[in-house]
Amino acid sequence: DVNKVVTRTYHDGLNRPVREERTLVALDDPKSSTRITRKVWEKTYDTRGRVDSETRFDYLPAAPGSDNTDEQVIALTSRYRYDAWGHRCEEQKTDGVKL
């Protein structure tokens, strides 16, 4: 795109999307040529081809003044259950709440 962000979607052998990644310019130095690739989301499927789980990733920068310069990766996973007719009947969020 205009901000030089490259988005890649990976598919499995059945052409289902399983992962998306974005490559962007390093946030701490926009004029740098350093590029960072980050995973945006991942999906898994059950044996019937339904989405079993979906994980979204968030990236938190290191705290200012910290000795650790690595960013923290937060993975937020939702899991799904289906009824006998194949309709999604339950979603369990990362915090354990079921919808």
Give a brief rundown of this model:
This is Sugar-binding protein. With 99 residues, the protein is mainly β.
Could you characterize what this model shows?
The model has no long low-confidence stretch (mean pLDDT 88). This protein is mostly beta strands and 99 residues long. Helix content is 0%, strand content 53%. The chain has one domain (6-92): Lipocalin (Beta Barrel). It has strands spanning 6-11, 17-25, 35-45, 51-60, 72-82, 88-92.
At the first level of CATH, the class is Mainly Beta
Which second-level CATH architecture applies?
Beta Barrel
Ranges where pLDDT stays below 50 over 5 or more residues in a row are none
**What fold name goes in the CATH topology slot?**
Lipocalin
Q: Which class of secondary structure composition applies to the elements?
A: mainly beta
Shape: flat
Protein name: Sugar-binding protein
List keywords for this structure.
99 residues; mainly beta; Lipocalin; 6-stranded antiparallel β-sheet
Helix-strand layout with pairing:
Elements: E1 6-11, E2 17-25, E3 35-45, E4 51-60, E5 72-82, E6 88-92
Antiparallel strand pairs: 1-2, 2-3, 3-4, 4-5, 5-6
